[in-house]
Specification:
disordered N terminus; alpha/beta; 4 helices; 5-stranded mixed beta sheet; Nucleotidyltransferase, domain 5; 37% helix; 5 strands; 156 residues
Amino acid sequence: MDKKGSAINRDFQVSRVLIYSDGACRGNPGPGGWGTLLKYNGTEKELYGAEEDTTNNRMELMGAISGLESLTKPCEVVLTTDSQYVMKGITEWMEGWKSRNWKTAAKKPVKNQDLWIRLDEACQPHQIKWQWVKGHSGHEENERVDLLANKAIDEM
């Protein structure tokens, strides 16, 4: 028991998960796909999906969302994306959008608001460190999720 009388579970550890996500679009808008790779405790899981008529930004968001939504308990997450849109949106812009009722600084509706809200909700149970990596630069996992995003389009 701690000083406040609460039981302490010394065996409890938050799981650390690495998530890599990417999106692709053939035409913008056009057919698009997303790919996600999760790494946890020596195991890997690949996820991917596609939409017939979408944008690259929506697919980038879906990659991150799908990875986070697949987690079944609160985790420490390192989420790596090659999307400046996702990276800046989640780390710099979202707080302002929310405070302005999902409007930009120019008072316009936030594009892809449905997915930004979904991403925000998917983040809530987790401690997330966001990392950006340059796309198509030889980063092994980023290249892999790019292939998954394109595979999703091909299989659609």
